[in-house]
Automatic annotation (TrEMBL):
Coiled coil: none annotated. It comes from the Eukaryota. Keywords: Glycoprotein, Membrane, Transmembrane, Transmembrane helix. Residues 51-162 form the MHC class I-like antigen recognition-like domain. It comes from Chordeiles acutipennis (Lesser nighthawk). GO terms for molecular function: signaling receptor activity. This is EPCR protein. SUPFAM superfamilies: MHC antigen-recognition domain. The gene is Procr. The keyword Cytoplasm does not apply.
Length: 206
């Protein structure tokens, strides 16, 4: 039997100091959330309206913060080419009850970093000993929200969502109301850390 899955995709395009965001989340193959610019939409009614309004505000706040940082660094160290950052994260729940979680980051179409969920560490995937990847790795390892909090989201919240949806558990649980959009927030913070590293290192200040 195929595993149940919760997958989030987030992409950020940075050009001339401007950031463009888009992405989506899917729960067992069904579109659950859509991110377009600063707007995140709940496609499946997974959270009540009041709670969802707060999640939307949180996401918008983090995306605005990211955009402002990009503008700040681009003024100090202009970059004359477009950069594309993408995050793919989620979890799978198998019929035997085991689960697998993941977080992968690409920069300009090349594997950049990945998150090793069992011990909450970031791993460089960029070819060679690149200063940008090394700096981003160090920055992301500094903060609980991009280490322990991310690990908890992937191992506990994400898997709990699937367990609540799973017929294998024998019942539907209230955990289906868990804040799925938390993954978007965590993903944005990860990108925030990487953007700092990318712009600093571009200027040779790692």
């Amino acid at each position: 039997a195929a595993p149940l899955t919760f997958i989030m995709l987030q992409r950020t395009r940075i050009s001339n100091g401007n950031s463009i965001f888009w992405g989506n989340a899917s729960l067992d193959g069904r579109l659950s959330h859509l991110l377009e610019g600063l707007n995140v939409t709940q496609v499946l009614p997974l959270e009540p309206p009041d709670a969802w309004t707060r999640r939307q505000q949180d996401v918008t706040t983090y995306l605005l913060t990211f955009g402002r940082l990009v503008k700040l660094f681009s003024k100090e160290r202009p970059i004359n080419y477009t950069q594309s950052l993408s995050c793919r994260l989620g979890c799978r729940l198998f019929p035997n009850g085991t689960a697998h979680s993941f977080y992968e980051v690409n920069l300009n179409g090349t594997a950049f970093l990945s998150f090793h969920v069992p011990n909450a560490t970031w791993v460089r995937r960029w070819p060679g000993k690149d200063a940008v990847a090394a700096f981003a790795e160090r920055e992301l390892m500094k903060y609980p929200i991009t280490t322990q909090d991310l690990q908890h989201f992937l191992n506990t919240t994400c898997v709990g969502i699937l367990q609540a949806q799973s017929a294998w558990t024998g019942e539907q649980s209230s955990r289906s109301q868990a804040p799925l959009v938390l993954g978007l927030i965590v993903g944005t913070l990860a990108l925030l850390g990487m953007s700092v590293g990318i712009f600093l290192c571009t200027g040779g200040s790692c």
